[in-house]
Sequence to fold (327 residues):
Amino acid sequence: FEIGDQTGLAYGIENSDQSGYRDFSEFDRTTANLTFSHKTGDHTFSLSFMETEENRNGSGAISQETLNSSRTSVGTRSIADIEQRLIGLSFKSNPSDQYSYQIDLSSRNSDQFVLYDYSPTGTFSAEQQVDQSTTIDSLTLQSQFQIGEGNVVTGIDLDKSKYLNVNESYPSSPTTTDQKRDEISFFGEYTHHITENSQWNLGYRHSHLEDELTSTSVLDQYLNAITAGFSTNFGSTDYFIKLDKGFRAPTFDENNATYTDQRLKPQTHLSLEAGALRTNYGVSGFAMRIKDEIRPTIRYYTAFGGYYSATNANFNETERLGANAFY
Fold:
């Protein structure tokens, strides 16, 4: 609602429940947010608060053969309870119709109670319970300007993350370690209007990640993502097609659930999605091919002939074929 002509206050509560078929991130999440905004001339200032409670599910330790043959029958169980708190500050300026810039600052703190499964004698026969605290501070600088019939967005993201092991209890598994990650990303997107109702867009992102898993072990990673899409409108329906080549770096939790301090590779994908959207409902179909997918595996074999049970590992290549629908 509005407070005067230049000031507003917005709040909301949302609950979302997502299956894990497309990207194996099944969760139930409740989010509450509050945003205060004020406009003075061409400048807009906003302050936002958010709190989230999430229950995340996983399939535990399963073999790659089982995963490839039957993705829907592996079953799930709770693997993490996560509470997050975020404060954000944003400043946007529109000095003209052709140009604008924006600065975003945020700090997110989360507490996680995570279960790691290890199975030397059977599924879930050993379990590590870890209380964790993660802090992520972010700065985003973004500008937007027009070139003829096109619109350009460029920017830079700076993220500094810190993971702390608060308390753990385990019968037969390795200890987790404190970790740090510094990430810098450059991104850009160009959108061109072909007609009044049709447009195409092209986007690119380059990221440099510096992971410190231990005080003496630092890993540098350079990752790239590119997207291309086309959309058009007929009546009250928007039709779109999108090609996406992207990546996902391993999280702190995933790297901790390995043995011998091994490094999980970034997961990369190539996806194609097409669909139709209206105001209250929509449908789309997608196809994905994923390399180095990060998943639990029942056994990780060492170079010496032995193996560890139920660790995270990178799978060579997996595929998805499915549909999304909302109402």
Notes: The first strand starts at residue 2 and ends at 3. Residues 59-64, 70-76, 117-127 have pLDDT under 50 and may be disordered. The first helix runs from residue 64 to 69.
